[in-house]
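Researcher: Structure for this, please.
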Amino acid sequence: MERLLVLVRHGQSEWNLKNLFTGWKDPDLTEQGIGEAKAAGGKLRDMKLKFDVAFTSDLTRAQHTLKLILAELGQDGLETIRDQALNERDYGDITGMNKDEAREKFGEEQVHIWRRSFDVPPPGGESLKMTAERVLPYYRAEILPRVMEGTRVIVAAHGNSLRALIMELEKLTPEQILKRELGTGAPVVYRLDEDGQVVSVEDLAD
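Model: Predicted structure, C-alpha cell format:
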C-alpha cells in the first residue's frame, strides 16, 4: 500500500515581495507566486502523482496555491479541507512590518532571535514551538491517519507550519529545523512505511 504525503509551501505572496512579516494576514499570490504554484503542479504531474484529499490553511495564499496545483493535475474537484491549525506562525506585533525596518527599530540581534529561535516569540505572537503545538496535534489527528490508510494526501501551507510537520516527519532537532529552508512553491514528497516512518523524501525545489 502506498502511503503518500506531499507538503508544499505557498507561492510568493504580495507581502513576501514587499519583505513584510505576514503571519495571519491574508495577501494573495504575486504573478511570480502564481507561476511557482503552476510549476509545482507540473512537477507533480511529471511524477504521475494523484491525490485523494487535500489539506490547506485558512489563508488565501495557501488555498490559491493548492487550487493552481490541482488544476495542473486535472483534479479541480478534489476534496479539500481547510483549517487554521495549518496557518502560518502568528508574528504578533511585528505583523505587517518591513523586516529591515524591524531590524532598525528593535535591533538586528533581537529580530534574528524572533525569526530564528525555536521558543522565543515576537511580542504578541507565536514562536516556532508554539506553532508546532497547534500544527502537530491536528496533523496526528486528521492528516496522518488518512495517510496511514493509504489515502494520498497533499498539504499546501506555510513556511513555519510546514517546518513543524517536517520536524516531526524527519525527526529533526529544534536547531536543525531552524536551518531548514523551504522554497516557495516547492513540493516535498514523502513516502511512509506501515509504522508512519519516512521511507523516502524528495524535495522538488529547483
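Researcher: Any notable elements?
Model: Residues 4-203 form a domain with the Rossmann fold fold (CATH 3.40.50.1240). Residues 103 and 109 are 8 Å apart (CA to CA).
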